[in-house]
Amino acid sequence: MGDAGRREFLSGAGFAAATLFLPRSARAADSRIEVLAGEPIGTIANEIYGHFVEHLGGVVYDGLWVGEGSKVPNVGGIRKALVDHLKRLPAAVMRWPGGCFADSYDWRDGVGPREARPRRTNFWANDMGGLPDGPGKYEPNAFGTNEFVRACRVSGMQPYVAANLRSLPARDFYQWIEYGNSPEGSTSLAELRATGGDPGPFRVRLWGVGNESWGCGGNFTPEEYATEYRRFTAWVPRYGLDLAFVGSGPNSGDLGWTRRFFARLVEKGEGQLGGLWGWALHHYAWNASRGRTTDWFEGKGDALRFGVDEWYELLKEADKMDGLIAQHWTAMGEFDRRRRVKLAVDEWGAWYKAGSEVHPTHLFGQTSTLRDALLAALTLDTFHRHADKVAMANVAQLVNCLHSLFLAREDRFVATPNFHVFEMYAPHAGGQSLRTLVAAPTLTYERASGTGSLWGLAGSASIKGKTLTLTVVNPHVREAREAEVAVRGARVVSARETTLTSDDIHAHNSLAQPDAVEPSEGAAAEARGGVLVHRFPPASVTRLTMELG
Ligand code: AHR
Q1: Which protein residue's CA is at the shortest distance from atom 8 of ligand 1?
Q2: Residues forming beta bridges with residue 535, ordered by sequence position
Q3: What backbone phi and psi angles, to 5 degrees, belong to 202?
Q4: Ligand 1 centre from 406 Cα, in Å?
Q5: Could you give the CA distance from residue 9 to residue 24 in angstroms, rounded to a whole number?
Q6: DSSP string spanning 487-536?
Q7: What does the pLDDT look like over 461-486, one tens digit per residue?
């Protein structure tokens, strides 16, 4: 069918602007997506839509926490606009207080009467050398455990607390658990908790045992860390809760860290794996140099100013997540034959050089563009495709930081394109991930030497009842991809589309222009012959919502 014919067919049937159903024989598309309804992968955990809040730059102060007395609208001191937006996302999880900050943090500094809490030098103070003094340098401890749990409760998230393994003894770890979880009035720490307005227990289930213990979290060898991990988790008070401990896992492709940790852990018997719920994996897409360097500072790109090849390279860097999950999972399986331990990708996102932060004190603050929206989408799709392996993920970080969903400065607030992707993808949470086959022309781009390549389309599908959600990324900056979409083993009766794109690959929302990048909704379409043809615009994220017969 030619273009003219297709337009006629489209308007005659009253279909969505870019969507139509046609018989299988009329193949016009250059791509094909096949969802296998009979091949479930696993349930997509809500926790995959998790967040990360560190005492770093403008994340807590100016971002999440404005204080009860602030002129900025707030819910018990938590920025109201942020709370309202989080409520639109899956009820997931919030990780706190770091990051590297966690292994310098004494939880006792952040409890009790606020006015009596000490000021401490923040872990990140050295990185803020030339910047004016403020809470990013000197931690005021106004936001502590009670305030964090409040932030989780008002925004519908469960708390995930990262404990200090580098600079506090194991005793502080189990007493923090006692502070948070011991029953009302039962212990002195429960009474201290009550002075912060919370007599009842927080019931915190998720506990990180250190952070990046291979680096800022103690510079351990994997063997040393495994010994510490066993010591920290050997005894803690449980109060009837099924506590879930997360071990400090590898930096990107460091398979040696995974293998050597697991090998040392199980030296005391495979039963030790029962005390490890999640194995943290951290992966940032930071090297935009297209093979020129592997230097952490040299390799970083600009958040707002980048060329087409750099756009592709950064997406490719993020796409490494797929292989990282598979490789670490395989390595874990060498020791964990019963597959008790899942992956917890508790830091992920893009990391650019400084320059696009909304305020100089927002260390690592960056403005996210359409590129970051595609990066978020392809990463969430990756997690869905590995729903049997990934139990949790936490985008770094919630506000005013790396791959943030929000930017905030005093009383101004904006949702970034990353937020829109999280909201578009929300129907996947709790759904059954389905195996999905995609065939599309591979794209190529220029690297420092040679040519790079990236898939033409990628995505994921899930089903809840009779509703199937398919999300797809088209990374090509100029070419739309027209794809036949078939659901094998089910009949599609209608489809709706939601698309996030822009004519400008650098498009972003700012405090001055908060709605430059927003998703658009397509009208409902009817099924014909079971095969849908959809045109995925260049540089886009698309959600197709299909009702099955
Ligand atoms: O997210 C910023 C930092 O990146 C975290 O503090 C640390 O864990 C990681 O290296």
Answers
A1: 99
A2: 482
A3: -80, -25
A4: 18
A5: 15
A6: EETS-EEEEEEEEE--SSTT-B--SSSTTSS--EEPPPEE-STTEEEEEE
A7: 999 999 999 999 999 999 999 999 99
